[in-house]
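Weekly puzzle thread! Below is a chain. First person to post its structure in token form gets bragging rights.
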Amino acid sequence: MFKKYKILKWLLTSLGIIILFIVALGLYIASLLPEENPNIKNSQASDITYINEAIPSYRGKILAVVTSTDTMGLSGKATGFELTELARAYYVFKANGFDVDVASPLGGEAPVVLDDDDMGRFDYAFLNDSITQQKIKQTIALEDVEPNAYKAIYFVGGKGAMFDFPDNKHIQRMVQDFQKANKIIGAVCHGPAALTKVTLDNGDPFIKHRAVSGFTNAEELLLIPDADSIFPFLLQDKLIAQGAVFNEGNMYLEKISVDKNLVTGQNPWSVWALAENMIQQLGYTPKERAITADENTVKILYTYETQGIDKAKDLIKECIQKKQNVSRSLFIDHGAIAVLTGKLSKFYDMLRLAAYTKETQEHHTT
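Winning reply:
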């Protein structure tokens, strides 16, 4: 009897210690997060200098293509196009002298996915812009698109693209036409699904032997373990099967591939670089733009992965000294990813980087 009591007491004590540890850890992580900007949701495109000043003379039109699919197959899970992947590229194109039309397989209102954790000033400005909202509520049906009107085409990601991009005959014909005319073809995240069934006149897959980036198997399966049964295919597998040279970067960090007139990006964090590379491929120098906090943090995370935590800290200090923003929230997000992938030492490092950022930011504001 007394032995059982001792075991029970030990179990309860251990459970209590674990609960206290988890609570304390949660409070510590919360203390590392910055206060939310209450005004960011009211961002207006008219207030963003990059979008409105020193705009080059008109250079032509770019077609952005978004999905019309609002459900992931038979899973019942909601989907659509990723707003951040359209909004950021849209304003880069506009700021560099291009008009942007938005099309979708079915036309009309396109289903959109908002990821509150990743939304920034440009994204909320897009939501509050009457012109852009009209464009996504009345997208052009692909069958009504005149390809000759556009200098480039950009396939926006979002998991819905996995369902209605690959077999769409209008997409396949447009990619073929753009390729023959050597026009720029861009795609990000799940957007490269548009390229998976396009063939050339000789019967070869369009992406055969071409460097391509897209959402990786590791990124997909981490968040949706049964993705291979929900989607028609895993994007990385399909691209490789079609002969692409798949260019895989670090998980949830920026990675783009440029292969002649084809520019592709791995995930939402690749949009800025991809859009500006499309401008370069169109023959122009991208307009100077203030680098966002997320972009700086992605570079810091890459430095951590390739050179270690001390070099990452050096880059944090350099950014803050130059009065460039760094996102503590993104470090915490990558800490959560580290836990999900069983990398507890990396989780600890992410907390250290978030804490160092907070300390350095506070030092430079006092």
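Puzzle host: Confirmed. Bonus trivia for everyone else. The CA atoms of residues 183 and 230 lie 34 Å apart.
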